[in-house]
Amino acid sequence: MTTTPELPQLGTTLYSITRDFHARKIAFEDAVRRVAERGLGPGLEVVGFQSFRNWPHLSDEQIAEFRTLIDETGLTPSAIGANADAGVRRDRLLTPDELVAYMEPQIKAARELGFPVVRVQYSLTPDDMERLLPLAERENVKLGLEIHAHHSPRHPLMEALRERYEKLGSPHLGFIPDWGSSMRRIPPSRIAAARELGLSERYLERISEAWADQHTHGAILDDSQLPEMYRKVYEIVEQEGAGAAGQPFARNSIGLFGHAEAVDWELVAPWTVHMHGKFYDIDENGDEPAVPVRDILRVFVDAGYTGFISSEWEGWHWNLHASAWDMIAKHHELEKRILAELADEKQGVTHGADAR
Question: Is 169 left (phi over 0), alpha (psi -120 to 50) or beta?
Fold first, then answer.
């Protein structure tokens, strides 16, 4: 008898509706309710500093109100975004001792709110993660370091972290893959937004070509490459007279849209504690044209990952026409379709003409 394979669970990060937060169009509590009302859970991910006043020093009343809201909506807290703000001072970076101390109250607040996973950032070194491990174990939360463009699973920093995780052997340390590290093109909506600003087709084509040229070289494995990459695209900005309006498009081409191959995620799949299903567009066929969603999901389904994927729409930075809620709903439909097909593959089910 063939059993149905366990699959990843879906959810939403409220980071996707940042534009609505900034515009005061929706309050935090109403946003949580809308996730439930639109069936965009069951997982709920939030960002600490974006969602809670006085984060991470929360009152008993704040904690009780959030837990009541979760009970009301039936959602499952999946992950909370903590910030490893090494540059919070104006005069210098935080020392390792200061950075670890900065993270401690955020980890404790996550547990008080009921979040099992805390997203942390690459300012934390392997030594820092090891020092935070006893606290994570005591609070019974998992620390997931986000792998976000320009980084990739094969970046030396991530390899060093993986080696340390393997040495420590604790389920309380891991990674949060961000699918924006594995792009196959610049998102069409990003190009369209730049075009609406009046930037020339030649400029858009040259930046896109520069991205594609880097893509042929693979993921960035040496941060010393970055200054030269930025120099090249800013040279295009100057040559094409794109000015200040053209600079964000050039920056995004390096900082947001990564070059890792989907198969690279196999390296960190065993250590994955949560995922960011980063996406930008959903086309008329219901697919994401810039992110290889199927290839990425196949890696994690094959690896047996059954944790949450937070749909993370980052097109809000430039796409002023789309509804974040509608975009997330479309992304969920895409994920459900692909996951069902991958489950069928595992069970040996065929489709269409092959089924006859």
Answer: left
Cα(274)–Cα(237) distance, integer angstroms = 37
- What is the C-alpha separation between 290 and 292, in angstroms, rounded? 7
**Tokens 């090494």 sit at which residue?**
86
Per-residue pLDDT of the chain (356 residues; tens, 9 = 90+): 556 789 999 999 999 999 999 999 999 999 999 999 999 999 999 999 999 999 999 999 999 999 999 999 999 999 999 999 999 999 999 999 999 999 999 999 999 999 999 999 999 999 999 999 999 999 999 999 999 999 999 999 999 999 999 999 999 999 999 999 999 999 999 999 999 999 999 999 999 999 999 999 999 999 999 999 999 999 999 999 999 999 999 999 999 999 999 999 999 999 999 999 999 999 999 999 999 999 999 999 999 999 999 999 999 999 999 999 999 999 999 999 999 999 999 888 655 444 43
* Distance, CA of 88 to CA of 90 (rounded, Å): 7
Could you tell me which of 219, 177, 143 has the C-alpha nearest to residue 305?
A: 177
Asked if residue 293 lies in contact with residue 179, where contact means CB atoms within 8 angstroms, the answer is yes
Q: Which two tokens stand for residue 267?
A: 């390296």
Q: Which residue out of 22, 57, 148, 351 is catalytically annotated?
A: 148
Contact at 8 Å (CB) between 208 and 191? yes
Which amino acid is present at 83?
N
Spell out the domains of the chain, with CATH numbers in brackets: 9-182+260-355 (3.20.20.150), 188-252 (no CATH)
Collapsed DSSP state (helix, strand, coil) of residue 118 = strand
Query: Cα separations (Å) of 311 from 11, 15, 76, 172, 180?
Result: 6, 10, 14, 23, 12
What's the Rg (C-alpha) of the chain?
A: 21
Q: Is 151 a catalytic residue?
A: no
Residues ≥6 apart with Cβ < 8 Å to 23: none
| Contacts with 348 (C-beta within 8 Å, 6 or more apart), sequence order | 2
